[in-house]
Write a structure and sequence with these properties.
With 398 residues, the protein is of the alpha+beta class. It folds into two domains: 276 residues, no CATH class; 108 residues, no CATH class. It contains eight helices and 23 strands. The strands form eight sheets. Strands 1, 6, 7, 12 and 13 form a five-stranded antiparallel beta sheet that branches. A four-stranded antiparallel beta sheet has the order 5-2-10-11. Strands 15-19-20 form a three-stranded mixed beta sheet, with helices on one face. Strand 17 and strand 18 form a beta hairpin. Helix 3 packs across helix 4. The chain is extended.
């Protein structure tokens, strides 16, 4: 399958934690905290799952961070930032929908989704082995909950609810696609997984989770036991990730999903978790046209404060592919003789475009583009149609 919006690579990255307050009020000897991080990511998509009758068969794919004590470094205090090692917080994976077929229903695929969870813990005196046992028990609880939730996903009901969601939104004047509706319904079906991390008040989230693990006092085997400092949960749908991109140098910075989440357990600790999620999707500058003489059929314009317009770029097609140059690029190509440009005039005549010096900017000559003066306004560059947005770029999925 070719890479594209229905099949792409993606990165979910938890990059750093910032400490607003790291004072462990139970420890009179140390004002800093010693954070460590458990990260769990779950991918529910067409890589691991497929239709089997009215249900899904196979397994979800997982990312489990390694280690516990010290896995993101040593102690840190208020005002400090700690970078999260990629092995602990970054998952590079792929995402594609799950094809399904349900009689009488229009839904033909379930969009993929990635669930990302993180538990920030405070290291005290709980033994390393006990903490790691709790870590693995939490991972196992998540896997069991995910498996049970997926096993209960009746496809006929999911497809019917998706169609109902589309109809409901339409009755309220909102037009949504089947894919968008399916994602909403899927998120509701996956709520038992999210509830592992959000079922209790923020200060007690992880306490509730760990109590459910029946760990036999693993976290309380020392006088000063390890404690939870905060929890993060966020889901990333296929549609949301497909809308992200990273542009090459010289273009915009791109459009990524920003992760900026408070992980607070006041009055003792206050942290924020930072990261990003994005598809491996970018816009690169298109290959330059091969022909040395090019017809200009469209232009880009810049509106002036005076109310007028000025040509900022020209474009056209060459051998069936769109090309585009900025005003400065085109002027340089004309002046150096690398390319010539023309517009079509009366009787299909070719009227050359000239680069004319219009003054100086920062001590350097500035050139504008000009067609020959005639009585035909249609061949004036300002009167040509606007070039398509992004016409000088090519879309790449990688």
């Amino acid at each position: 399958m070719a890479l594209g919006p229905n099949n792409f690579n993606a990165t979910i990255a938890l990059n750093s934690v910032f400490c607003f307050q790291g004072d462990d009020i139970d420890d009179v000897f140390d004002e800093d905290s010693e954070p460590y991080l458990w990260v769990i990511m779950v991918k529910i998509d067409g890589e691991g799952l497929h239709q089997d009758g009215n249900f899904l068969a196979g397994e979800a794919k997982y990312f489990f961070s390694p280690g516990s004590h010290g896995n993101i470094g040593g102690s840190m205090g208020s005002g400090q930032t700690r970078n999260i090692p990629a092995a602990v917080g970054t998952w590079e994976t792929s995402l594609k929908p799950i094809p399904i077929s349900v009689a009488g229903q229009q839904l033909t695929q379930i969009p993929g989704v990635i669930l990302c969870c993180a538990v920030l813990m405070e290291e005290n005196l709980t033994p390393d082995s006990a903490v790691e046992a709790a870590h693995q028990s939490l991972n196992n609880l998540v896997k069991t909950t995910v498996a049970n939730t997926i096993a209960s996903l009746g496809l006929a009901g999911l497809a019917a609810d998706t169609a109902a969601e589309v109809a409901l939104q339409a009755s309220q004047g909102n037009i949504i696609t089947l894919a968008t509706a399916a994602q909403r319904i899927l998120n509701r079906r996956l709520k038992p997984i999210q509830d592992l991390f959000t079922v209790a008040a923020p200060g007690n989230m992880v306490v509730t989770i760990l109590q459910n693990l029946n760990l036999g006092g693993f976290l309380g085997t020392a006088i000063d036991a390890d404690k939870p400092m905060g929890v993060f949960f966020q889901s990333f749908s296929q549609g949301d990730l497909a809308d992200t991109f990273y542009s090459a140098p010289g273009f915009s910075k791109g459009n990524r999903i920003d992760i900026n989440s408070k992980m607070w357990n006041m009055p003792e600790w206050a942290y924020t978790l930072h990261g990003e999620a994005y598809a491996h999707h970018r816009f690169d500058r298109a290959a330059p046209p091969s022909s040395s003489r090019l017809q200009v059929s469209c232009t880009t314009k810049r509106h002036m404060m005076s109310g007028g317009k000025r040509i900022s770029g020209i474009g056209g097609t060459d051998n069936g592919a769109f090309w585009g140059y900025s005003r400065g690029e085109a002027a340089e190509l004309i002046r150096t003789g690398q390319k010539s440009f023309y517009v079509v005039g009366p009787g299909n005549s070719q009227l050359d475009i000239a680069a004319v010096q219009g003054g100086f900017v920062h001590g350097q000559p500035w050139y504008f583009l000009q067609t020959p003066a005639d009585q035909v306004p249609g061949d004036n560059l300002l009167n040509l149609p606007d070039c398509p947005a992004g016409g000088t770029t090519v879309e790449v999925w990688y």
